[in-house]
Each structure stands twice: as C-alpha cells, then as structure tokens.
Write a structure and sequence with these properties.
The structure is a homodimer. Chain A is mostly helical. Chain A is 67% helix and 6% strand. A two-stranded antiparallel sheet of chain A has the order 1-2. In chain A, a hairpin with a 7-residue loop joins strand 1 (89-93) and strand 2 (101-105). Chain B binds a DNA duplex through helix 4.
DNA sequence: CGATATGCTTGCACTTTGCAATTATCTATG
DNA sequence: CATAGATAATTGCAAAGTGCAAGCATATCG
C-alpha cells in the first residue's frame, strides 16, 4: 500500500521559502483592501493599481503605467477604460507624440484614491507597528535590492535560472 | 484648464508603500516560476500552491490546504481536481471523519514538485544572495511577525481598519 | 507620398471565479 | 435509532477576467 509518496525529499519547505512568505503577507493584506475598493467604487484590482500610479505620476502613458504595476498593455488599457467610465481618469492624446495617451487622474479620482489610501496607510501602520525602528531601516534597504533582483529574475525567464544551479 | 487634479495630496506614495513593494517582488518572482510549471505540467497557480502544500503535509484536508495557501474552498476543490487529473494527487475520504478529504501527493506529483522546487530554490538563492547574513536573520524574524499581523488584518476585514485611525 | 514601425484599443474565444444549490457525512436529541 | 441540523466538499452556471489576432491612429523613414 504505497501509492502515495511519503515525506518531503527535496529541499523546499514551502513555509520557509522566502517568496512564499512574502506572498502570504501580500495576499492577506490585499484582501481587505480589495473588498473595500471593489464594494465602494466598483474598482477592479487593475483599476486600483492604475489609479495609484496616476495619483503620483501625472500624465502617464500606458507603458509607463504597465511597468510601474506589473500589468500588460491590454490590462492597462482596460483598467484605464474602467477608470474613465467611473470618471476617475481622463485620457488625452500626448502633447508631443499623440500616440502616447496622457492619462491623468480627475478630482473625483483623487477623492476615491484618498479614501483607499487612508485604508492603505492604516494597513501599513499596522504592519510597521510590529517592527522595530532598526528592522524598518534594514527592510527598507533590503527591499530595494530585492526589487532590483526580482526584476532581473523576471526579465531573464525561467530558463536562465537553471543554467546556474542544479537542473532537471 | 483645471479638470485634472495636480499632485499628490494624501500621504500614500505608492512606490514607498510597504505592501506595494512586497507585491512587486512577489509578482516579479512568481512570473517565471508560473510560466515554467504551466508550460511544463499544465499546472495552474492554485494547482502549484496546493501541490507544494501536500508535498510537505501529507493527507491534508481541503480547509487546511486553503488556510495554508490563501485559497478559498472552491479554488482548493478545483485545484485538487486538476492535480488528480494530472495524476499528481489522490483524494480519499478521511480516516476518522469521512467528510474530510485526505489529499495525498503521488509519486509523479512529487517528481513534478521536485522539478518546480529546484527552480524555486534557484530563485530564492538569487534573492538571498543580495542580502547580508544579518539582513536574512532580521527579515526572517520580522516576516514571522508580519505574517501574523497580516492574518489578523485579513480576519478583521476593512471596517476594523478604519476604527483605529483617520476615517473618510 | 507610400511603406513601415509604434502605442494603444477592441472583438472574440477561452479560462477563471463567485456563489447557490447539492451531496455526503457526522452529531445531537427526543 | 430515526430525524434534524451541522459541516466538508463538490458541482453547475452566470459573470468577470484574460490572451491574442486584428485594427486604428500617429509617427518616422526612404
């Protein structure tokens, strides 16, 4: 009676794997935020991300937005469409090159953003309260490097990852 | 000419917001891994997460799995179905209480898991290489607290978050 | 001027998700 | 010991989201 394999035989303990641990925090924190903005404004996840980007970077074009929040051009286009329907954003042809849309947040978009941002800040405050001052500093600096390295990992694709170490 | 609101007036700078920074790392790191297991095994994201859970915790039931990887019962059920179709998992009625499914990884499921885990380990290694030993220690301990706090945040829902601080 | 390239959008098929209803099993009670 | 009320999991179906081919507008090059 040995149809199922018994214990773990590779070196990956999920609960200790760094990306998984980060994922858990992100997923759990995203859920209440998402239910807030979707219930309150009918905003999708992509819509919220884009709103947050154009709230801090005015007259952004679609590719910039996509890069800033890990969204492909289709999703960006649709997200902007949603924001435009809700009256939270306007798109105008770009000033110099009119192929580039210049997407800007509207007044009511900013109002909505501020409401969501208040929740976001509350969440961050709850998290930061669990850390000491020196931990915050360490994490801030470490995270900068992790962002850079993860961008490179992403850009390289999975094939590049197996050239370094053990391969199947 | 003032249809659009100008600069940021609330305190949320997206690029400095902790959950966003964590999200970026997670999203970028997940992408190559996902394209690997979906191309190679036809596994969905939920399928992979569940596979990873049952690889380290044998005879798990659906709610345990769901809790362990932030998946609702429907998604878990479907994910298990997918794994069963692929021959990577079997479900049997639980031993004592037969309502609980006892989900176990199969031999070929473990083979697949090990292949994916190798990639996962490579990714983690790349990330950890960017950190000093003391940063790793700090992050390890901080992350444990963040996991706990984010679980509480999730459990409380968004209404609970606004009772503490500034409200809209 | 075409011809070609680029940024973005749209239409359509396909997949994933959310939720109500269902099945199977267990526990408690008269 | 039958029946009512839980609980764990699954399934069916509609709604939402996604991926990709093709399309439109604009720009640049020969």
């Amino acid at each position: 009676m040995k149809q199922t394999a018994p214990a773990s035989d590779d070196g990956l303990k999920l609960s200790a794997w760094l990306p998984y641990r980060l994922f858990l925090v992100v997923a759990q924190v995203a859920r209440p935020l998402e239910s807030f903005y979707s219930e309150t404004f009918g905003l999708s996840q992509a819509g919220w991300r884009i709103l947050a980007v154009i709230a801090e970077r005015d007259a952004a074009n679609a590719s910039e937005i996509g890069r800033a929040c890990a969204l492909d051009p289709f999703a960006v286009s649709r997200g902007i469409g949603q924001l435009a329907d809700l009256g939270f954003a306007v798109r105008r042809p770009g000033k110099t090159d009119r192929r580039f849309a210049a997407v800007s947040i509207t007044r009511s978009g900013r109002v909505a953003f501020n409401r969501i941002a208040a929740l976001g800040s509350a969440i961050e405050a709850r998290l930061l309260a669990r850390l000491t001052e020196s931990e915050r500093t360490t994490i801030d600096s470490a995270l900068t490097r992790l962002e850079g390295e993860s961008a490179r990992i992403d850009a390289g694709g999975w094939r590049a990852l197996l050239d370094d170490a053990d391969v199947p």
